[in-house]
Amino acid sequence: xxxxxxxxxxxxxxxxxxxxxLEEIEFTSDxxxxxxxxxxxxxxxxxxxxxxxxxxxxxxxxxxxxTIGDIVNYISKKMGNEDSDDDL
Length: 88
Fold this sequence. Notes:
Non-ribosomal Peptide Synthetase Peptidyl Carrier Protein, Chain A; 4 helices; 52% helix; mainly alpha
């Protein structure tokens, strides 16, 4: 799965969990500042991403995830796509 596919799935999860319109969710969107997520929202999102992508997000990694792009890149690496050819 390439980064563009991951990005679309991430957008869908954020849309569902935060009730944000898809067109408002950009690669550079900050989860807290731009999308209004609070700490409980972040926990809910992490659990949803783990379920959606079949990955485990380590607790120490969560503090480094601020934007949609951070999420996409993290999931891509966890799925073994570190050198994905379709960067966004």
